[in-house]
Prior knowledge:
The protein contains 14 helices and 7 strands. Helix 2 (11-26) packs parallel to helix 5.
Amino acid sequence: MTFEPERLGQSRSDLAEALRGQRRRAGKTQTWLARRCNMSQTKVSNIEGGKLTPSLVDVELMLEALGADDPLVTEILALARSANTEWQDHWSSRRRGLDKKQNELARLEAVSTEFRFFLLSMITGLLATPEYVRASIADVPGDQSKTIAKKLERQQILYHDSKSFTFILTEQAVRWPLLPPMAMAMQLDRLASVSRLPNVRLGVIPLSGHIPERPLNTFTLYDRRLATVETGTGALMLRDHRDITAYLKDFETYERYALFGDDCRTFLADWSTVFARQRK
């Protein structure tokens, strides 16, 4: 199906109205529907009131219980899929202030336990040196000191024993020369250091051998409830369990090609040395 970014924010209210109307046409109460779907009446009420975005499984159960016709089922499931997808474009984020985006990420990290990062072309802020963070937003006009400070502050989450992190970086992401050579060498040393944290698995995929895969995007998985997929102009926030399952499968595939532990640190040390020698 095709998503229209300007419609994504309206889908939850449209979905709520469609489900409410379908229940009323069937002549059923919220209590009856809740009992048939093994939900609480409060949950049904919140879904119909647009306060809660239901999963596709929830919507399928509700429509089946109400005996909805196939054409209507298709239409409402399309609304549900859109409601579980959010588009955040870079221009809107910049207008609001990138420091506000950092606050949103910090809140998301606070309520998540297991993190999976697939980094295709750049190093993520949680792993970055201050110089790398500054360079990564150098094209954003205005004073970004608050954003830089909050990006660095968020790195403290790496030291929380209750959290677990797996980072997979391609060789391109690690070696892309965003900074001058010595600064890049220091950035790679930072990666090696973080890889030794007990709750962090950091792996690299060298560009050698045969890798019959075609990664297209950087993406992050928060537990098993949210996937964020980055593009050149923004990010998709996916909550549909089918999307999350697909990205989990992709992550597990790339994980098989990654080198971890001492093997990873050997590559990082070699690449760091290459950068250091470029200064001479």
